[in-house]
């Protein structure tokens, strides 16, 4: 009996856990010696041992079978299908999800920076690697990566990733150093994604460290995150997670990107959704208040209307999804498991089901599958 059953489930957030040589084996020779070691500081003190254990058990059928009994409790590199594609297919059988977006976890730390050769070469290696991880199973949808930098290279990287088999393109929530992602120089990216019927993605971590470190220096005993480290999400980090995507998506709406590219779509993943309700009101207020001095805000539609049909959001399992739907509509929110990251919890489906008790069957169906299908441009 699978974990999820009784309806169609599409999972908008899952991850692979990279082993130490995962990126290197896909890198072009000219950048291979410049790729940095996998940075695991955000994974807590036990990450290096977890990787060593994972590499030791790779290909061990008996060990994989033993993990099946701990499908929702084994996390990170210890989870079934965390790094092995064949295991991941077995994990999906047991999970009961019919589609699953797959993001990497730490690979971007190996190539992000000012070196454009390494930046775009590393992104190309990443996209090859994640596309191959997902290639054997049509249920797995690889999320490629296109960094900001040289606009023509960003668009080229997205095109290459899609040609490799990626079904969505992750872009950072923080802007390039010299211009907005809405600048005409980046219109080539949005134009191609629209033409290819492939959505862009924003994901937690794409906006960098949002909370100033000084706020953690509060004179109290040092706290840790879920993983035992201090660089992942803690309570105060949680309070500001939405700031980078809220800013990014506000600019996309108010600068008319969705008016110029009416079939462009995007997802905001693992950054919560409680903020979406007041954000929709603030968008309309900003548009109405500043039209006199900013004529470009005189768009054919209200700002909030561009969110509907263009953007989707994954609530955390602890958030009141039923209330979100009642306040903002049934067309905006997506089910996600965050498998195999610990932040997803051991039973996200139970939490979501409880919070959806007050909404219609149609709204539940949209949350668990139909909104995902619309975001991905899938035939239903």
Major sheet attributes: 7 strands, parallel
How many strands?
A: 7
From the alpha-carbon coordinates, what is the Rg to the nearest angstrom?
A: 20 Å
β-strand percent reads 5-15%
Mean pLDDT across residues: 92
Q: Per the principal axes of the C-alpha atoms, what is the gross shape?
A: globular
Low-confidence stretches: none
By CATH, the topology is: TIM Barrel
Oligomer: single chain
Distance between the termini: 25 Å
Order of helices and strands: EHHHHEHEHEHEHHHEHHEHHH
- Fraction in helix: 25-40%
Read across the widest sheet, the strand sequence of neighbours is: 1-2-3-4-5-6-7
CATH architecture type: Alpha-Beta Barrel
- The CATH superfamily is identified as Metal-dependent hydrolases
Q: In DSSP terms, counting alpha (H) and pi (I) runs of 4 or more, how many helices?
A: 15
Secondary structure elements and pairings:
Elements: E1 10-15, H1 29-32, H2 47-57, H3 61-67, H4 85-95, E2 99-103, H5 116-134, E3 140-145, H6 151-164, E4 168-170, H7 187-196, E5 200-203, H8 235-240, H9 243-254, H10 257-260, E6 266-269, H11 276-290, H12 303-307, E7 311-313, H13 321-328, H14 348-355, H15 361-376
Parallel strand pairs: 1-2, 2-3, 3-4, 4-5, 5-6, 6-7
């Amino acid at each position: 009996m699978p974990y999820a059953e009784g309806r169609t489930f599409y999972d908008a957030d899952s991850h692979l856990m990279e082993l130490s040589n995962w990126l290197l084996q896909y890198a072009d020779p000219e950048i291979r010696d410049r790729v940095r070691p996998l940075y695991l500081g955000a994974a807590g003190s036990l990450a290096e041992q977890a990787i060593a254990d994972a590499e030791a058990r790779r290909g061990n059928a008996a060990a994989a079978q033993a993990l099946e009994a701990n499908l929702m409790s084994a996390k990170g590199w210890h989870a079934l299908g965390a790094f092995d594609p064949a295991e991941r297919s077995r994990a999906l059988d047991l999970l009961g999800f019919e589609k699953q977006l797959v993001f990497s976890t730490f690979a971007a730390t190996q190539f992000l920076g000012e070196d454009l050769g390494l930046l775009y070469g590393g992104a190309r290696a990443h996209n090859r690697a994640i596309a191959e991880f997902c290639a054997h199973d049509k249920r797995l949808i690889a999320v490629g990566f296109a960094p900001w930098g040289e606009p023509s290279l960003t668009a080229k990287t997205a095109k290459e990733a899609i040609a490799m088999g990626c079904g969505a393109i992750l872009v950072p929530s923080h802007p390039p150093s010299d211009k907005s992602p809405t600048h005409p120089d980046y219109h080539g990216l949005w134009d191609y994604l629209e033409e290819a019927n492939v959505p862009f993605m924003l994901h937690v971590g794409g906006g960098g460290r949002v909370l100033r470190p000084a706020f953690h220096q509060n004179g109290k005993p040092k706290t840790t995150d879920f993983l035992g480290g201090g660089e992942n999400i803690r309570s105060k980090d949680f309070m500001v997670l939405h700031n980078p995507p809220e800013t990014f998506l506000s600019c996309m709406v108010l600068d008319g990107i969705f008016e110029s590219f009416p079939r462009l779509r995007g997802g905001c993943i693992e950054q919560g959704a409680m903020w979406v309700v007041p954000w929709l009101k603030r968008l309309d207020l900003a548009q109405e208040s500043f039209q006199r001095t900013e004529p470009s805000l005189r768009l054919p539609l209200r700002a909030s209307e561009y969110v509907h049909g263009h953007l989707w959001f994954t609530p955390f399992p602890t958030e009141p999804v039923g209330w979100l739907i009642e306040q903002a509509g049934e067309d905006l929110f997506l089910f996600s498991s965050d498998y195999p990251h610990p932040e997803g919890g051991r039973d996200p489906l139970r939490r979501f089901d409880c919070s959806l008790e007050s909404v219609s069957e149609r709204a539940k169906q949209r949350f668990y599958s139909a909104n995902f299908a619309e975001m991905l441009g899938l035939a239903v």
